[in-house]
Amino acid sequence: MPGAPKPRISARELDDALDPEVPAAVLCARCGHADCPGCLHEQTLSGVIALVPWERPGALLRTRLWATARASTFDADAFFMSMPDGPVAPALAFAVVSELIAASAMALFAVLAIAALAPGWARQVAAEDLVRAIKLGALGIPLIAALLVLAHAAHGFALDRGARRAGGRAALTRALRFGLYAAGWDLVIGPVGVVVIAAREGVAKAASIGGLAVGLPRRSSEAFLRGCYHLEGEAARPALRASYIAAAVATVIGAAAVIAALVEAVVF
Known about the structure:
mainly alpha; 13 helices; 0% strand
């Protein structure tokens, strides 16, 4: 009403409103769960600035990395539909760290599997070609991680191109952030995720990861297209198709480059 006194907001209340403990995707920044009962404050979508746990203060691996990776996998719909715009650099850093850890875990798992299934050959390699094997791992892990980061970035880039062709408004940086934060899938679905989920949430929850992975890229992409471009159903199909093709092409080209580099390292 005209002339009515305006409500006064304290500095503490203003600070709380501008710096919420829960990101707008209804994901607790502390535990990363969409169904969190409220670690610190009541969760709300109204007036909350969308933030990704990785981009908030906190312990690098336990709070920021794992909370973001878990949210991108177990709560993919809510997480990607509310993916905020922002700088690409933090998302790129998240993707690089996630893929390096995921690739290292897969390499370790492969070594342990070979040692268990072919112990004689493993002992021979350790005795005769240990230096070459170490060199192969030191080169191969970063190359594989780079390949996966490239594929995720290509996925996001192609989503934006396809969405614009379908009438959506350009949002390239937001789409790249989507693709790069989707690298959390590889961390959670791989050996690291199985071990961490089993230790924190039980074996039954860890066993559900396999089923959760089925259709995860499609569900995540559809949620992002709805939230960012307001495209769904038939309108979203061109963007989805473009993203799959781009990711496949980037993977094939990158895989060829990785194999060539590894062969050269082994031979020479």
